[in-house]
Amino acid sequence: MASDECYAELDWRGEDGEPGAGLTAPGAIPSILDPLVCDGSHEGLLAVYSLSKQSNMAGYRAAFVAGDPVLVGRLLEIRKHAGMMVPWPVQQAMAAALADDTHVARQKDRYGRRRALLRPAIEAAGYRIEHSEAGLYLWTTRDGSDPAGDTDRTSRTPPGPRWPLVSELADLGILVAPGTFYGTGGGRYVRISLTASDEGIAVAAGRLAISGQHG
Predict the structure, then answer these.
(1) What's the half-sphere exposure (Cβ side, CA atoms, 13 Å) at 196?
(2) Dihedral of the alpha carbons of 49, 55, 59, 61, in degrees to the nearest 10
(3) Three-state DSSP class for 100?
(4) Counting Cβ atoms within 10 Å, is residue 127 exposed (0-12), middle (13-18) or buried (19+)?
């Protein structure tokens, strides 16, 4: 069993609506390798961790796998032939980032403030957020809407999927991703990211507020 834990430091359960406040403390989500989870045995278990989210190191491709020594050994053998060695400077950068919790707390507070601003604006505009207890995205839908759409057979434009919620938000100047990009389970949703700048999030919240007043 492989556990993707790259969002472990971005848990929003317990938020109280105040920017950056009431959020779960770093480290509160146990790894699959924690004795509380695995009962002290790592057999058959792999924890996959990336610094791309907590440390803004996506471009570094900085990540690691830990767990069952037998499985890790097999991965090491494959790595030698697949050319997936992490460059030494990146390894050093990873070690520095993993040794510092201060920047992780700052990063979480930054995303928490954006979330606290954007989430109520989305909901006040008539949308609903589901399955967004952690991470950098707000999975958004609306009652009676079908973001996945179907094939438009009446349009003069080439056939293709219609995404009503994507179009609604695009009309406000807010670009989102159709949930279908991430699998069939996302068909009812659009994914709104918190990775825009503070200024961009504030502009989006303002446009949603105006939309809600006119809706």
Answers:
(1) 20
(2) -20
(3) coil
(4) buried
Q: Could you say which DSSP state residue 182 is in?
A: G
Per-residue pLDDT tens digits for 151-200 = 444 444 444 455 899 999 999 999 999 999 998 888 899 999 999 999 99
**Residue 121 corresponds to which amino acid?**
A
For the segment 27-53, what is each residue's pLDDT rounded down to a tens digit?
A: 578 999 999 999 999 999 999 999 998
Given 75, 103, 131, the domain boundary residue is 103
Q: Which residue has the higher pLDDT, 212 or 30?
A: 30
Domain that holds residue 146: 110-214
Same domain, 12 and 92: yes
DSSP-assigned letter for residue 84: -
Q: How far apart are CA 17 and CA 57, in angstroms?
A: 28
**CATH number of the CATH domain containing 84:** 3.40.640.10
Q: Which of 11, 6, 35, 34 is nearest to 22 (CA)?
A: 11
Burial of residue 111 (CB within 10 Å: 0-12, 13-18, 19+) is buried
73 and 119 belong to one structural domain: no
Task: Return d(Cα 201, Cα 44) in angstroms, integer.
Answer: 42
State whether 19 and 82 are in the same domain: yes
Query: Residue 168 sits in a domain of what CATH number?
Result: 3.90.1150.10
Which tens digits make up the pLDDT trace of 83-124? 878 899 999 999 999 999 999 999 999 999 999 999 999 999
